[in-house]
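dude i think i finally got it to work??
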Amino acid sequence: MSISAIQDEIIEEFALLDGDMEMTVFYIMELGQKLPAFAETDRTEENVVKGCQSKVWLTAKLEGDKIMFSADSNTAITKGLVSLLVRIFNGRTPDEILAAELYFMKKIGMERFIGTQRSNGFASMIKQMKLYALALKTKLEVNL
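look at this
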């Protein structure tokens, strides 16, 4: 499934909530609970996403030519938000991640249910995932 197809799927899921704020926030928290367990050994300062009000840990590793992300947060809503990004970017090549245009946030009206601080943090998560993609792309090219 393409990055666009996954985003469209997310948009459809949120459309079912019909703009209900409480249900939307609850759904985001529920998504966070579905993230795979995050290794305690990865809860290090170097894996913390800078620019987030909450603590967000994020790691990336190559499996073949695909990137696998792992993430966690100390708050339920932020964990749900990062889970959306993991869902979109997991199992993608560095080039796919770097070329990705994310539009689902605007389509689901995310700015209505997360404040400015969380929006900045969300942008930091995206930036960090793209930085990992750039670093791992370089690693792949060096190893060719």
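The chain has one domain: 3-142.
im so relieved honestly
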